[in-house]
Amino acid sequence: MQTELSKQLGVEHAIFGFTPFPAVAAAITRAGGFGVLGAVRYTAPDDLKRDLDWMQDHTEGKPYGLDVVMPAKKVEAPGSQTLTEADVEAMIPPAHREFVRDTLAKHAVPELADGEASGWRITGWMEQVARGQLDVAFDYPIKLLANALGSPPADVIDRAHRHHILVAALAGSARHARKHADAGIDIVVAQGYEAGGHTGEIASMVLTPEAVEAVAPLPVLAAGGIGSGEQIAAALALGAQGVWLGSLWLTCAEAELHSRKLTEKLLAAGSGDTVRSRALTGKPARQLRTQWTDAWDDPQGPGPLPMPLQGLLVAEAVSRIQKYEVEPLLGTPVGQIVGRMNSERSVRQVFDDLTRGFERAIDRVNRIAGRA
Ligand SMILES: Cc1cc2nc3c(=O)[nH]c(=O)nc-3n(C[C@H](O)[C@H](O)[C@H](O)COP(=O)(O)O)c2cc1C
């Protein structure tokens, strides 16, 4: 499964895998794809350094990348140059805090132990933290730097290019794709409405060819709703130079999901069991539908705050829900492809299934076209 881009990057398959877990990212790279480690949860540079050292030791010299989150739209703190977590805390209305307390109390969610920090922080979405991650990452031989939620700043693109690192950015519309191209990035990840995580409103089937046309000759990776080789064949037929998958890896044996109950929820979920909600971060993000998302999306409630306020508001609550595995509230970002994530497989098995499905699709199309 070779395209110009996969050849340029020296990978066997034009399959890019986004994942927050180093063991999954390394396994994707070892299986002949391109593993991309999500950095947003690394608020301490030493943690990222430790995991990049590990990636370096477990990728057999094959290429991998890093994904950071530098939102193009920022909330500014009055009178403050750099928004700190304390600035954000101060902007959260008391009624929203009360709503979180009441919702947790309704489900009898226990408190964290004294002194136990919430494992889930928002600071990875702050530009100064992402810049700290980059200071670490540029010391490693990463081959791709991706940014969610906007084009990376011009100096970051220049710095990456000086290190011979390709720069990618996620786009939910052809207009955003064009903006990224004008900003000087190298690859557009066109991410459809079906995708897990922050998404726009346009389905992949419509978005992929629109983005390809909008940024030609820049390469486009198709993202959103892809979980089989047949879907990869469809994306490549639409002009993509590869695919970018996020959800599918969540139920892989190598994934370090914090809760067995969550894995089971994902394995059991159907394609209609996700919702595009602002409950988690303040921006629309597709995730499992739970009683937590229902509470935030209820018109009788206060509704979510904008990013980054909502993320900070719910950080501790999310940690408590995860730690105590409070089933009705337990969720994660995941796309509609969750409906086909029905068994736990290794990353290697996923690659075998994807490549077999791709071959089947090509054979079928060749037969239809009278070429086989
Ligand atoms: C659990 C999860 C977390 C995600 N976090 C990020 C992120 O931090 N940065 C990012 O660029 N994309 C993130 N995404 C989106 C993925 O990069 C990818 O575009 C998306 O998952 C593709 O669609 P799919 O979920 O249908 O495979 C996330 C997706 C999931 C499922």
In short:
This protein is α/β, with parallel strands linked by helices and 372 residues long. 41% of the residues lie in helices and 13% in strands. It has helices at 4-9, 22-30, 45-57, 85-90, 94-106, 127-137, 154-162, 174-183, 204-215, 229-237, 260-268, 291-297, 309-323, 347-368; strands at residues 15-19, 34-38, 64-69, 144-148, 166-171, 187-191, 197-198, 220-223, 242-245, 274-277, 285-288.
Could you list some keywords that capture this structure?
single chain, 372 residues, alpha/beta, TIM Barrel, 2 domains, three-stranded antiparallel beta sheet, globular, binds flavin mononucleotide
Question: What do these coordinates show?
Answer:
The chain is about 40% helix and about 15% strand. With about 375 residues, the protein is α/β, with parallel strands linked by helices. The protein has 2 domains: about 5-75 and about 125-255 and about 345-370, TIM Barrel, CATH 3.20.20; about 85-120 and about 255-330, no CATH class. Strands 1-2-3-4-5-6-8-9 form an 8-stranded parallel β-barrel, surrounded by 6 helices. The radius of gyration is 20 Å and the shape is globular. The mean pLDDT is about 95. The structure holds flavin mononucleotide. Flavin mononucleotide binds near residues 38, 196 and 224. The site of flavin mononucleotide (FMN) has 27 residues, from strand 3, strand 4 and strand 9.
